[in-house]
Amino acid sequence: MKHIGFLSFGHWQPSPQSATRSGGDALLQSIDLAVAAEELGADGAYFRVHHFARQLASPFPLLAAIGARTSRIEIGTGVIDMRYENPLYMAEDAGAADLISGGRLQLGVSRGSPEQVIDGYRYFGYEAPEGKTMADVAREQTEVFLKVIEGARFAEPNPRPMFANPYPGPLPIEPQSPGLRDRIWWGAGSDATAVWAAERGMHLMSSTLKEDESGEPLHVQQRKQIEQYREAWAAAGHEREPRVSVSRSIFPIVDDRDRAYFVGGGETSDQFGAIDGYRAVFGRSYSDEPDRLVEQLRADEAIAAADTLLLTVPTQLGVDYNAHVLESVLTHVAPALGWR
User: Fold this and answer.
1) For residues 243 and 200, what is the distance between their CA atoms, to the nearest angstrom?
2) Strands (E), the chain
3) φ, ψ dihedrals at 172, nearest 5°
4) CA–CA distance, 310 with 168 (Å, rounded to integer)
């Protein structure tokens, strides 16, 4: 059995060929797709965060809106780039969105990926101190975020406050949402950062892009990453069970629309190349008739090792088509693989 959700980058483009032509379209259609996914029986609606791009960028208004329109589905990010975040402000937003959703947020965070602009975090007011990198800053800001959503009391109270303080001593960020700390995920691009996440009690997100550490196919490297993560989690002595997600582009070919969009397109094998200063492996796409697709996916070692599968969706093809893709996976693929 697996949790199956979708992962949207929220692409939009003012083009006649796009069903998502504006930022407003991207946001409103994201809400509609989450509602449709819940009705279809999917388990999660996740959104990527990219700044300075025609994609989704400010997750918490969107997550809160989806939380108000749905009742069961998990709502998350995959991922928030912590190089751009004020962890205290983010803790307030996350606590509020989680309360609105009834405790369904599953927040993925990480050091982020290459962006549309050079050192975009500088425009948000962040730079690495001497002797550190922005990856260090992202991890440090994540640790601050974890502490404050856990209820750390650190702010010295005003002796003559406008409103009476609820208790003596330092004050925490408000609102607090019980359990949110246990639903934070780290998007790990390497084996080492997966271990780092496990030590700090964060769940693991492994995407279709990973640092190439062995030259093996992505799914093999991810399976080994997951094994190291779970070993580190056990060694850390956490009482909770860890969760692991992998994301994939999966398109069952069941009608003429699918054939027009995906037959003969996409990458059918992993790609290796340089990105952001390191060698990376990019995962393949899966598109085929359901019976052949099942056999291909059965051989994916990382999917087998994970408990959560996030299906990347082509946002600009519209809500109806993306709901059709989710339904096709849930109906024609998941049962044959024992995921449902």
Assistant:
1) 13
2) 3-8, 44-47, 74-81, 105-110, 184-187, 203-206, 209-211, 244-252, 271-275, 278-282, 285-288, 308-312
3) -95, 175
4) 45
pLDDT tens profile 44-93: 999 999 999 999 999 999 999 999 999 999 999 999 999 999 999 999 99
Report angle CA 92, 145, 66 to the nearest 5 degrees: 50
Burial class (CB in 10 A: 0-12, 13-18, 19+), 3: middle
Can you tell me the distance from the alpha carbon of 113 to that of 48, in angstroms, rounded to the nearest whole number?
Answer: 11
Helices 87-101 + 59-69 axis angle, to 10: 10
pLDDT at 265: 63
Q: Quote the pLDDT of residue 266.
A: 59
Residue 295: the pLDDT is 97
* Over residues 151-176, mean pLDDT: 93
Helix (H, G, I), strand (E, B) or coil at 55: coil
Superfamily covering domain 3-337 = Luciferase-like domain (3.20.20.30)
Helix/strand/coil for 84: helix
| Percent of residues, the chain, with pLDDT higher than 70 | 99
Tokens 């918490």 belong to 60
d(CA 89, CA 149): 11
* DSSP structure class, residue 330: I
Q: Is the dihedral of CA 271, 244, 88, 64 positive or negative?
A: positive
Q: DSSP letters of 161-214?
A: -SS--SSSS-B--SS--TTGGGGEEEE-SSHHHHHHHHHTT-EEEE-SEEE-SS
Phi, psi values for residue 201, rounded to 5°: 75, 30
What are the pLDDT digits (tens) for 187-203?
999 999 999 999 999 99
**Does residue 161 have a cis bond before it (omega within 30 degrees)?**
no
How far apart, in whole angstroms, are the C-alpha atoms of residue 107 and residue 6? 14
